[in-house]
Amino acid sequence: MRGRSFSDCCSGYIDFSKARVPDMDINWSDVNLWVSLATITFNPLFWNVVARWEYRSKALSNLFRNRRLACVLLGITIFLLGLFRDLRFKAALDSQPRWYALHENWILWPGYGCMAVGTVFVLTSYYRLGFFGTFLGDYFGILMDEKVTSFPFSVLENPMYWGSLLNFVGGALVKASQAGLVLSIWVAVCYKVAIQFEGPFTAKIYEDRDQKMRFNKMA
Questions:
Q1: Closest of 113, 89, 108, 109 to residue 180, by C-alpha
Q2: How many angstroms separate the CA atoms of 117 and 109, rounded?
Q3: Do 127 and 159 form a contact (C-beta atoms < 8 A)?
Q4: In sequence order, which ranges of the chain are alpha helices (DSSP H)?
Q5: CA 46 from centroid of its chain's CA atoms
Q6: DSSP character for 219?
């Protein structure tokens, strides 16, 4: 049986048997790659474990004798860990080879577009949630009056997570880094897992609050 081919407008046929599949262009021995992978994995694990520990034990609130202060200190820690993660991601992009399949000028525009949209999602999410809504104030008993439904939450669930992911993807495209795209996929996996843990637990916190309020009204 003859190989499959299609007509084109110039030479008559395109021989797909000669098409080249882009090679993997990742330096797996690069320490920066693995450090970046480790920080991406550690951060959501850290804040979920610590936040649940605080919710059950009130250890941080008792240690600092003020739940708001405890939440602020945890929030600062999470923010600094995020900065360190982003720096390690940048170091990985800089030390990895450029992927020729992405090394085109037109790739820059989707890359910058992802970063712009991602930044808008992150900043507007913070604006809507505030410091305590962003940095796990729910687990410290600092609850919001009602669920936020305005932009960007009107566009998608968990916009801060997905905005952050878009920044990773955009950085990888701008740097023409195949390793960066692989790391971005891992970011998506870690965020998806974190959401599966955080979503139901946070919903339970507010359900317990609402039940308590209803009970108090009936008493």
A1: 89
A2: 12
A3: no
A4: 31-57, 59-64, 67-95, 105-134, 159-174, 178-218
A5: 14
A6: -
